[in-house]
Amino acid sequence: MKRAELSRSRKLFRVLVRALPFDFQMNYGGEMEGVFHDQVREVKETGGPLDFLKLWAETLTGIFTTAPREHGEIFKNDCSYAFRMMRKNTGFTAVAVLTLALGIGANTAIFSVVHSVLLRPLPYAKGQELVFLRQEAQKVGNNDIGFSVHEIQDFREQNKTLSGLVEYHPMSFILFGHGDPDRVRAAVVSANYFDLFQVKPLLGRTFLAGDDTLGAPPVLILSYEYWKNKFGSDPGIVGKTFEMNDKVHTVVGVLPPVPQYPVESDVYMPTSACPFRSSKAMIDNRDGRMMEVFGRLKPDVSATQANADFATIAGRLKSEYPKSYPVNIGYTASAAPLQAELTHEARPTLLILLAAAAFVLLIACANVANLTLARMSRRERELAVRTALGAGRSRLLRQLLTESFILALLGGALGLLVAYNSLALLTDFAARLTPRAREIQIDGGVLMFTLFAALGTSVVFGTISALFSRANLTSSLKEGSTGAGAGQNKNRVRSALIVSQIAFSFMLLIGAGLMLRSLIKMLQVDPGFVPQRVLAMRTTFSFSKYKAGPELVTVIKQVLAKVEAVPGVMSAAISSAYPLEPEALSAGAAAFSGPFMIEGREVAAAEAPPVGGQVVVSNDYFRTLGIPLKAGREFADTDDGEFLVAVINEAAKRQYWAQEDPIGKRISGDNGASWLTIVGVVGDVRDFGLDQKVTPEIYTPHSEGAAPSTLIVRTMGDPRGLAEAISKAVHDVDPQTAVTHALTLEQARSESIASPRVTASLLAVFAGLALLIAGAGIGGIMALAVSQRTREIGIRIALGAQPLNVMRMVLGQGLLLAIVGVGIGAVGALALTGLVKTLLFEVVPNDPITFLSVAVTLIACGALASFLPARRAASIDPIVALRSE
Amino acid sequence: MTKKSDGESYLPLTPAAFNILLALADGEKHGYAILKEVARRTEDKVRLSAGTLYGNLARLESAGMILESDRRPEVALDDQRRRYYKLTKFGREVAVAEARRMEEALAQAHAKNLLRKPETA
Q: Cα A203 vs. chain centroid, distance in angstroms?
């Protein structure tokens, strides 16, 4: 029994000894075990169980104080040795650190975006409980029809899974009382909106239940940014009053700088203060859906449970109000975590960029490993001598890993600088994909990532170089310094590294190439209008002032006449939206579309009704934008609202009147209460993005009642110079009209493809980096091969080989590496490009043109990189070469 | 190997290191014997464990204060793995320097009457 215990103790001790450095174990491990064995035996013979425990306590303390000391000592020595080596090889150090800095920097930068946008919880207390509710009309392709007042009440009262439910809708109002009339982005919200998000005010208070009752004195809360930019962070702002919608509003609070979802607003107001939301018509109409709804899940309730809850409520509503939820629209209700809702658009792009950055880092690793190997072949003698003098292999491996760790750490520090400097650019880019872009920053999590990236990097390239140099250590003493066997073996490793660099570069270049081709395709798309020399300006007429249609029609007519009289203006029109309008792009076509009826056509209960986008325009809209008339006529002054008319686009004709002439047919957007006669067909316009397919659209003249809000002006020269004159012309007619957000349609077009453009540029930058690193790699390895084979090449030339043949031989080897790399890369790219499919426009992921041109580029790059070494090989003087040994 | 000039730079020694040097002062010993001798001499006040013993031996060896001895005991009597250590000339010098340092400190303590027996125990 005693023997068994003895050997158990001994086994455990043997495990503990492993905490010590390898060389220490080799040197003293056996003896230590012997000493311990003697101690245990003595205790067994003379002591009691307490003495045995005491022995173990002392032994454990001994090993765990000795181990860190020994490791620390080694690390200190390795570091000072590494720094000496680095100082001696400044060229190598600079190239390696720079390469790693670019690799790690790219990863850190992209990761900071991924971290802030996709990984970090929403910056609200228990942000994971926040959900976004939606009602969908799936059969008419609308995945967010909004909520009406009735529906909000129903969901609030009937749900069993939420601890709170609030509504929100964005409006534009004109704020008076502080300089020029200012058009503000107003968020109309429930009184408990900020309580639900758990946002505490910076100044004053948030809304109280009393603020949100009809007839309560109107109050406002300012966003932090608006308060800072517009009022210079005036600490006395609370209590000040502004006029808006003909009512005096009192500021009751200022928000802290929190990210605002789903869009940024300047001011917040309770629902009772919004003239639309509080109108009787809106409150009574179950179908008046314009609100968005957020909820907070009760603790321990999942989004899935909430979904089931809402589906039940939706089912109940469907059977209770069949008229509001016709079977054929496919009505459902659901909830999604707010975080996912705010970031789903950004996710694929960001993940692809992260993968691309990781590729760059892998290429950088392969390159530094290659550089290290090349340097190692020069240090081989030194390392072999050290081995011979008794340095264990693991000791050398450890030394090499320490060196690579220091290199990677320096690279990481520099990379952090690279990332820090690209942050503003990336935030700007991410803002097009997600409202969370504002939160992007380099924080502790990102720093940890950088540290781990550097650590991982050093392990990858350190291990590669250590493993392959170790294999050769023994042989290098036996042979000459350019020993053929070991040298060739190592060259094979280096070639494999080069091939992998080229393969990864190929995949990156394919990614960038495909994005570039998509972008070019997008630029070639005919937008359906002439964007040159057109200015669009948001023009908001006071809602309260021009309540009735005829008054507004008159004002608009006056405004248009005045604007057209401005020198340099060719024509002017007014409309509810304009093509490629930034807000319209992010909302999507469905948000502007609704079902309509075609006279004489029955729609079966289970069938989806016709759906079309609705645009309200003035007479000269088509002419001003250069949208061609295809049939019938445009709107005229005679369309005065008595006889209702509409113009459709060709997509609508194709979809609903494919076999007949739509002119003269009648449609209704209000369930047959009123009918519009189609009088014309115009060309298709890519209203919602150059890469979006054109959907049916119905244009109606503004004289039929709706209030358009965008002034569109075609000019003779640069339209930007006229913005001021135009806004003055509008103010001449009505000084209370806000004219804001001037944007040329060319800007709008360029803006509409900014996101694919930036994605393409980032991928192109990554691919360019990869190409540069891989090219330098090929050049380096060929130069090394030539210098290693100087004697052999000298002999060949002495034996009569033509310089041209020698050159061809070296070039051929470089090209072979490039071609093998391209082959492997092509296979990898074919396997991976499915991932970028969602980002492509009219380009297939295995686009032969892209593949071919990338292959040619890489092979040409390989040839170019091998050219210099090849020329040097050809010019080797056999006499000098033979003497050099 | 010997570093006469910088022997002073190793002072003061840790109690463990000093005791190991003392243990080797009267002859070569293997690890377990050192450990036992130190415990016996200090009446168990300095107890070395395997880890601290060999950590110290490694450091003393690389500083050139001790050496592995060529002497092997008869095979029948001893474990083959046991190595014997002996004090080098330099090691002896360092140990002496450490003892002198302590002696001086002691003398100063006496001069200040620190070590006079307290009146009340």
A: 34
Q: Which two tokens stand for residue A126?
A: 């228990």
Mutant choice from A38, A63, A73 vs B, greatest count of B C-beta within 10 A: A38
pLDDT tens for A152-199 read 999 999 999 999 999 998 887 888 877 777 778 889 999 999 999 888
CB of B51 within 8 Å of any CB in chain A? yes
Using an 8 Å Cβ cutoff, are A512 and A763 in contact? yes
B49, B50, B58: residue with CB nearest A24: B58
Q: Which of B30, B49, B79 to mutate to test the interface with A (most CBs of A within 10 A)?
A: B49
Residue (of B27, B78, B16, B25) closest to B49 by Cα position: B16
pLDDT in tens, A230-243: 889 899 999 988 88
Task: Dihedral sign for Cα A11, A16, A18, A20, please.
Answer: negative
Return d(Cα A101, Cα A420) in angstroms, integer. 12
- Chain A residues whose CB is inside 8 A of the B30 CB are 31
Strands A676-682 and A666-668: antiparallel
Q: Where are the domains of chain B?
A: 11-111
A264-312, pLDDT tens digit by residue?
889 999 988 888 788 887 888 888 788 889 999 999 888 889 989 999 9
Nearest CA in chain A to B32: A35
- Which one, of A245, A123, A264, lies nearest residue A177 by Cα? A245
- Count of residues for chain A? 885
Q: Do A36 and B50 touch (CB under 8 A)?
A: yes
Q: How far apart are CA A621 and CA A713, in angstroms?
A: 9
For chain B, helix (H) and strand (E) counts, in that order, are 4, 3
The answer to whether A207 touches A193, Cβ cutoff 8 Å, is: yes
Distance, in Å, from the CA atom of B81 to the CA atom of B76, rounded to the nearest integer, reads 13
Q: Which chain B residues are within 8 Å of A70, Cβ to Cβ?
A: 55, 58
Are A31 and B54 inside 8 Å of each other by CB? yes
Range with lowest mean pLDDT among A348-362, A465-479, A592-606, A759-773:
A465-479
A812 touches chain B (CB under 8 A): no
Q: Tell me how far CA of residue B4 lies from CA of A276, A659, A840, in angstroms.
A: 96, 110, 76
Please judge whether A35 and B47 are an interchain contact, meaning their C-beta atoms are less than 8 angstroms apart.
no
Nearest-CB residue to B51 (from A30, A55, A59): A59
Tens-place pLDDT, residues A627-672: 999 999 999 888 877 788 999 999 999 999 989 999 999 998 887 8
pLDDT tens sequence across A433-470 = 888 888 888 888 889 988 888 888 888 877 777 776 65
User: Chain B within 8 Å of A32 (Cβ-Cβ)?
Assistant: yes
> Are A70 and B54 inside 8 Å of each other by CB?
no
Contacts of B3 (CB under 8 A, 6+ apart): B63, B64, B90
Chain A closest-CA separation from residue B56 CA (Å): 9
Question: Is B108 near chain A, with CB under 8 Å?
Answer: no
pLDDT at B5 over 90: no
Q: Find the CB nearest B49 among A20, A59, A69.
A: A59
Q: What is the value of ipTM here, to two decimals?
A: 0.87
| Mutation for A interface: B14, B45, B53, B54, most A CBs within 10 A | B54
Say which residues have a Cβ less than 8 Å from residue A197's Cβ, sequence separation at least 6: A124, A130, A258, A294
Minimum distance, in Å, between the CA of residue B5 and any CA atom of chain A: 23
Distance from the A127 Cα atom to the nearest Cα atom in chain B, whole angstroms: 51
Q: pLDDT at position A482, please?
A: 45
- Give the residue ranges of DSSP H helices in A612-753: 621-625, 650-656, 723-733, 745-752
Separation of alpha carbons A572 and A419, rounded Å: 46
| CATH placement of domain B11-111 | 1.10.10.10
